[in-house]
Amino acid sequence: MFRLGDLISHLDMSREEGRHLQQGMNFRVRPGHSVVLMSRRPDAPYADAVEDDGTIVYEGHDAPKSKGIPNPKAVDQPDRSSKGRLLQNGLFEQAAIAFQEGEREAERVRVYEKVFDGVWTYNGLFALTRADRVPAGERIVFKFRLEPLAELSADLAASTHPERSLQLVHARPIPTAVKRAVWQRDNGRCVRCGRTDNLHFDHILPYSKGGASITVDNVQILCAEHNLAKGARIE
């Protein structure tokens, strides 16, 4: 399983999830979770957002372009196909409604974010808690609320203190702009050994010791070996 902040390829991501992830919304790829792919790049097709506490507001997906729908951005985002089959928007919406009505637990969602073409990062595990249909210009779009869940932290899980191994996955969110700037500054390599595989975004001054996530100067790229060796030490 990937760790929060891991830098991965689309192939690695697809292998982890057991299917080729071609679409951004993937309901129940495994019995225990769904997957969404997000992007906050300037040219991103959807208006995904991250709140200060790490909660993601994920925009639903447009109807596919077709002869009947030459401009998907001009029509409401659909929940069903023309034959009445639930689409990804509808599946996620139904799961959110079932949670709000107390019929089931919140759907667990793994989130991956595109940093550059071919470069993705694992953003953590979330709970799907709400789905809204909201106006966007002259059409209606879906907005799904994904709240961060606790899961194993890479450095703590490897420690000898299992009672400390749970943390809020978005207690230390790194903005996309910072990730992109750090990737370019460090040339997509571990700053310690120059490796280009098994990479991870690392806080130079650990978050647990007051280090910031929003400044480029406090984030670096490390390979898995050097990231785990560093742990939460100040160097």
- What characteristic shape results from the CA principal axes? globular
Portion in beta strands: 25-35%
Order of helices and strands: EHEEEEHEEEEHEHEEH
Which spans of ≥5 residues are poorly predicted at pLDDT below 50?
Answer: 152-171
Main CATH class of the largest domain? Mainly Beta
Q: What do these coordinates show?
A:
This protein has 235 residues and is of the alpha+beta class. The chain folds into two domains: 6-149, Roll (PUA domain-like); 174-235, no CATH class. Helix content is 18%, strand content 32%. The strands form two sheets. Strands 1, 2, 3, 4, 5, 6, 7, 8, 11 and 12 form a ten-stranded mixed β-sheet that branches. The radius of gyration is 19 Å and the shape is globular.
Topology:
Blueprint: E1 6-8, H1 10-17, E2 25-30, E3 33-39, E4 49-50, E5 56-59, H2 88-100, E6 107-116, E7 119-136, E8 139-148, E9 150-152, H3 154-157, E10 166-168, H4 176-185, E11 199-203, E12 219-223, H5 224-230
Parallel strand pairs: 3-6
Antiparallel strand pairs: 1-7, 1-11, 2-3, 4-5, 5-8, 6-7, 7-8, 9-10, 11-12
